[in-house]
Amino acid sequence: MIEVDLPRFERLLAKALDTLPAAFAEMLDNIAVVVEEEPTEEDLRLVGLDPEEDDLLGLYHGVPLDERGAGYSSLPDRVVIYRLPILWICETEADVVREVRDTLVHELGHHFGLGDDDMPY
Questions:
Q1: Do residues 32 and 78 lie in contact, with contact meaning Cβ atoms separated by under 8 Å?
Q2: Residue-wise burial string across 87-116, b where 16 or more C-beta atoms lie within 10 A, e elsewhere
């Protein structure tokens, strides 16, 4: 585990965002990316995980593009990046940037309607 305080983690998140391909970066226009310390038990149960055994690196909150109807609100969807679970599995800041990037790509996949089994991360 690497020790990284919240301000430094947010800078590493910004670095990870900078490494996304331009096409992905453009897709973040109406998606808020936020950092939280760790998922709640409710977050874990929401995605079918056991709070006693499992952890979560990120979570997409929103309506996937392929499920939106004509009356969809323009409020931004959210991708939550969980700081502590990411730090628990990383040994270096480079690992953190890579893991945050992979988590962002995974959660953006949910934005496009992909399931967990459909994604490379």
A1: yes
A2: beebeeeeebbebbbbbbbbbbbbbeeeee
Q: Which of 57, 114, 43 is nearest to 88 (CA)?
A: 57
**Interval 70-116: pLDDT, tens:** 666 667 789 999 999 999 999 999 999 999 999 998 888 777 766 77
25: alpha, beta or left? (left if phi > 0; alpha if psi -120 to 50): alpha
**What is the Cα–Cα distance from 86 to 90, expressed in whole angstroms?**
6
* CATH number for the domain running over 6-118: 3.30.2010.20
What residues does each domain of the chain span?
Answer: 6-118
CA 28 to chain centre: 12
Give the CA angle between residues 74, 78, 84 to the nearest 5°: 170
